[in-house]
């Protein structure tokens, strides 16, 4: 479909999404290579060189664009990157013994706290703190189910955290 330089140039001018993984182009004057869908400013046709694979472009001494990141082999979409970051944060929260701050979570996935909070809520449907509370409660429930002494302690009135959680839920 994009075999000739003319058809590749047309796809590049139109930012044709079908060409996203069909070929790459390098700009001689900047030494940068991009995907045809990159939102960067279009170079002059005389300065553009087309390649079939990213490895060919790197051998020709071009460096990857910072906007479209053509060197990523799996060409993840933003949503896939977000899901991956949220999954990593959830694993961190599930494995943590205590509380984990939003700043710690955001730093662990390489994002700012505000941006991470927004994508976490978009992906999971709840805020990171609401997820953490639910995860801690589920972990406490699993731990309590393994212990017969917990039932006896709740009946006697020893105020374990799980007893207090259950008491609040039954009163509400």
UniProtKB/TrEMBL annotation:
Residues 87-150 form the HTH araC/xylS-type domain. Its cofactor is Zn(2+). GO terms for molecular function: DNA-binding transcription factor activity; methyltransferase activity; sequence-specific DNA binding; zinc ion binding. InterPro entries: Ada-like_dom_sf, Ada_DNA_repair_Zn-bd, Homeodomain-like_sf, HTH_AraC, HTH_AraC-typ_CS. GO terms for biological process: DNA repair; methylation. Keywords: Activator, DNA damage, DNA repair, DNA-binding, Metal-binding, Methyltransferase, Transcription, Transcription regulation, Transferase, Zinc. It holds the Pfam family Ada_Zn_binding. This is Metal binding domain of Ada-domain-containing protein. It comes from Chaetomidium leptoderma.
């Amino acid at each position: 479909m994009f075999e000739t330089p003319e058809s590749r140039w047309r796809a590049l001018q139109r930012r044709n999404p079908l060409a996203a993984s069909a070929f790459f182009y390098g700009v001689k004057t900047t030494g940068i290579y991009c995907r045809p869908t990159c939102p960067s400013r279009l170079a002059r046709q005389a300065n553009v060189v087309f390649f079939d694979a990213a490895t060919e472009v790197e051998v020709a001494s071009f460096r990857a664009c910072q906007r479209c990141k053509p060197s990523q082999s799996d060409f993840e979409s933003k949503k896939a990157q977000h899901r991956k970051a949220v999954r990593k944060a959830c694993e961190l929260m599930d494995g943590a013994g205590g509380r984990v701050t939003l700043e710690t979570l955001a730093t662990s996935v390489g994002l700012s706290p505000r941006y991470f909070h927004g994508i976490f809520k978009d992906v999971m449907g709840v805020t990171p703190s609401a997820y953490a509370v639910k995860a801690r409660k589920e972990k406490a429930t699993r731990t309590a189910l393994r212990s017969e002494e917990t039932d006896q302690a709740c009946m006697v009135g020893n105020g374990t955290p799980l007893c207090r959680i259950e008491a609040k839920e039954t009163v509400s």
